[in-house]
Amino acid sequence: MHKQIEQAVAEVSTVLLGKEVQVRLALCCLLAKGHLLIEDLPGMGKTTLSNALARVLGLEYKRVQFTSDLLPADILGVSIFNRDSSQFEFMPGPIFTQVLLADEINRTTPKTQSALLESMEEGQVTTEGQTRELPAPFFVIATQNPANQSGTYPLPESQLDRFLMRLSLGYPDKEAERKLLLGEDSRRKLVHLQQVITANDLVAIQKAVDDIHCSDSLVDYVQRLVDYTRTGPEFVYGISPRGSLALLRCAKTWALMSGRGHVVPEDVQMVLPAVAEHRLSTSLDYRVDNRGLSQKLLEDVPVVV
Amino acid sequence: MSVSWQVPRNCLVWAMMSQVALLLPHVQRLPWWMMLAYVICALWRIMIYQGRWSLPPKFLKSILAVVCCAGIYLSYGSFIGLEPTIALLFSGMFLKLLELNMRRDVYVLIFLSIFASLTAFLFSQNIGITLYIFLALLMVVTSLVALHQHDLTRLSINSLKKTAVIFLQAVPLMVVLFIIFPRFEPFWTVPSPSQNAKTGVSETMGPGDISNLSQSGELAFRAVFNSVVPTREDMYWRGLVLSRFDGRVWHQGRNTKRLFSQSEVSQLKSATNIDYDYTIFLEPTHQRWLFSLPLAFSDERLVRMSSDYRLIRLNPVSNRIKYRVQSDEGAVIDRELVPYQLQREIFLPAGSNPETRLWAQQLYLSSEDNEAFINAVLKHFRSEPFYYTLQPPLLGEHTVDEFLFQTRQGFCEHYASSFVFIMRSVGIPARVVTGYQGGEINPLTGTVLVHQYDAHAWVEVWLPERGWTRVDPTAAVSPLRIESGLEAALAALEQGFLSDSVFSPQRYRYIQSLNYLWLQLDAINYYWISFVLDFNDERQVDFLKKLIGDVTPLRIAMLLISVGGIVLLLVAMQLLKGRTGEKSSPESVLYLSVCRRLAKAGYPRSDNEAPIDYCRRIIELKPELSQHLQAVTRTYVTLSYESYPREQRKHLISQLRNETTKLSYQLRAI
């Protein structure tokens, strides 16, 4: 199992060069049954990453480009009158897939953003009074432009909370960029990516995550971290119980991906920025960006040994 | 509009609640418009908080301040005195509500509140008000705590809890300071409250004075007996001796205010044998005379004996005082009267009450001697239809005549006054004595409680060889009053007891459980008085002597430091304990010892660094440690984050111990 995961990471890393940590985190997010939000400037490889992940996991993949005039029906589907059968027929939207790439999700209106809500939380879609199940593993990988760019509708906190992780890719280092410039076109390489993890494997991995052991002292550490965000003066509001559950689940998955049967504080520290940053907000007195915030959280909360 | 600093809501609510709490004990003393002013200021502050109104401009604030001062001047007629000063303090506190522009202003408000809380003690120091002010102070400090708490936009009980903990931590210090802080004589005298000046027995006695007093259920004094307690009929607490009659009102005689010298008193004392030994806790009367059983001696510093054998205090009793008294019930007082005394004690204003004089002289002619005459008069009171009542009819010019021959309804002052008049009209020296008669024994403490409704007036008649002898004409008319007290006497007459004071607890004494509760409260108050309020400089020195031997500044300082040190040590231990958490597991102890050794070698682990990261960092710096350090870290991490059966755990711990020893050898070698 560990071998398969390593292989998947290696496979994705062939198209996204020099971003092994981000690739691992993204994979961790999906293995932990969570939705992923990737925030970065245009052209940093967000789409490539999501596409590659879908291929490696062997999942059905659809992409929706979110624009300001996109409507909920454009995603969920719509009933159309069929002249042959004289009946309305439901034409499923792009959401009926296993991996949905919601590209530039914050460029669309809140109305359309919230159309994703039910499907992300419940795994089902309700339109025209009828509820339809989505296919079994269902992931939303959303990308968004930084909020200070023009033409964006920032996602509300309630919606941000539904994403298990938020990643940002960042510029590649010099060496990786050079390789990128000299190498093969990544779009062509994508097509050749092998499926490494089957649907059965995925179920088995997700089951194995549940069996990872968490000691009391580790749960104490997680609680201390969460508590700090709730009482510290730097934070407007703290991490919700959903957030602390997410943190522990991601730490467990990370432990599994590292080939361990138990969670150690390093796992928590590793996943914390991705899991916590989008759930936190600085109070006005502390003008640092959220990255500084999670860093401060890690620095201030002691790992009691 | 500029954004201004806003008082945190939590702080504001607590501050305003504490102000109301501080105001309540003074409601009766402050003018009514002050309450209105407070409500207006508070509403204004709430409006400012909600952003509906703005802060008052400077000129308006000045006007408000001037109006408040003028109002106080008009209400009291002066700025000097206790009540006007308190009113000024409180109005300043209210107006400050309109001026909370920054944090510093809130400090001023809170410190004002703390200062204002002390003013309640100028009027009363009983345990109830003390506890109440303690609670009010708790609220004041809560607002101070709330001012410093972050981001609390709602009223929070949490602040109160925190303050309560602070208060509890301060209690030992408070007790120590209470015990050892030097009790100085006050540097200045606080003017006494004006409203309380007139309670208790007054300097003169006219018709209706004592019946008015008997409407009050207030405590006059407590008496604690070290000897046997006298029976109720014998408890005549003498206060004043009234010898001069102006036809209506009895006054103190001239030349009776001379005080005996110490030698005269000790000479007097040597001839007596003491029956009763007791201590009296007198409530403030703002007068000089003290109450005691007949022929009383007291060794207190400020207490002297006057020439009419009463105890006099050099300073007026403006606080509750305590004095110890010894009494000889059977002593002969004034075996002989010198002519001017005799003259004084038989003087009657010319032409007053002619009928009485005539009647008395006729009766005297038919009596064998003075004693027989006295008995005849008492018999007259007993056999003729005289009534004992709280509501006697009003009397005209010749009060004694009207009372004896027409109305025949009176309270003790009528009987005493007319009895003395009768005696004097036949030349027997007699005088009126006022004070209290009876008292109630609290079975819980054994103290005798004497209330204002026990006020009484009786007669002393001078007989040759026997001196001044007590005669109580009221006993002839209403024996119940003397044997069982006023309440029983009035009940027998079907008249209401304390009918004017609906809220007096004594009025409801017939309810058993209420009476018990009342006695309990009295017992608590008694202990409060005798152990806390009465802890003066003498008792302080006695107590400290018992505790530390000689009372020197050095020893006191050592006592203070050691008690304070113990308290701080306990607090510090509590704080440190909170940081390290509960008992450490064996693997943690071992691993921490490794960390300590590494830190000594110059590679400390930061608090937030997890073991594996730490190990990795050290190995990069010191690759030669890699083998053992990795083993230690691996074993430690699996032990603390993985679950193992007990046997395997034991095995792993011993393994960790081995590795730790090896690593520390290696470290020592470096």
Give an account of the 3D structure.
The complex is a heterodimer of chains A (305) and B (670). Chain A is of the alpha/beta class. Chain A folds into 2 domains: 2-66 and 98-105 and 136-202, P-loop containing nucleotide triphosphate hydrolases (Rossmann fold); 212-300, Helicase, Ruva Protein, domain 3 (Orthogonal Bundle), CATH 1.10.8. Chain A is built from 13 helices and 9 strands. Chain A has helices spanning 2-13, 20-31, 46-56, 72-76, 110-122, 157-160, 174-182, 186-191, 199-210, 216-231, 241-257, 265-276, 290-300; strands spanning 35-39, 61-65, 77-82, 87-92, 99-103, 124-127, 130-133, 139-144, 163-167. In chain A, strands 2-5-8-1-9 form a 5-stranded parallel β-sheet. Chain A has a two-stranded antiparallel sheet with strand order 3-4. In chain A, a hairpin with a 2-residue loop joins β6 and β7 (130-133). Chain A is globular and about 70 Å long. The model of chain A has no long low-confidence stretch (mean pLDDT 85). The model of chain B has no long low-confidence stretch (mean pLDDT 83). In chain B, α1 (9-23) runs parallel beside α5 and α6 packs across α7. Chain B has a 6-stranded antiparallel β-sheet with strand order 5-8-4-1-13-12. Chain B has a 5-stranded antiparallel β-sheet with strand order 3-2-11-14-15, sandwiched between helices. Chain B has helices at 9-23, 32-49, 58-76, 82-96, 103-119, 127-147, 157-180, 209-213, 262-270, 339-346, 354-365, 370-383, 399-407, 412-425, 473-477, 479-484, 486-492, 512-533, 537-548, 553-580, 586-600, 611-621, 626-641, 646-669, and strands at residues 219-225, 236-245, 250-252, 276-282, 296-297, 303-305, 311-313, 321-327, 387-388, 409-410, 430-437, 440-442, 447-451, 455-463, 467-471. The two termini of chain B are 68 Å apart. Chain B is built from 24 helices and 15 strands. Chain B is elongated, with a radius of gyration of 38 Å. The longest helix of chain B has 28 residues, at 553-580. Chain B folds into 4 domains: 9-180, no CATH class; 209-517, no CATH class; 538-580; 586-669, no CATH class. By secondary structure, chain B is of the alpha+beta class. In chain B, β14 (455-463) and β15 (467-471) form a beta hairpin. The chains are: A alpha/beta (305), B alpha+beta (670). Chains A and B meet through α12 and α13 of A and α21, α22 and α23 of B.
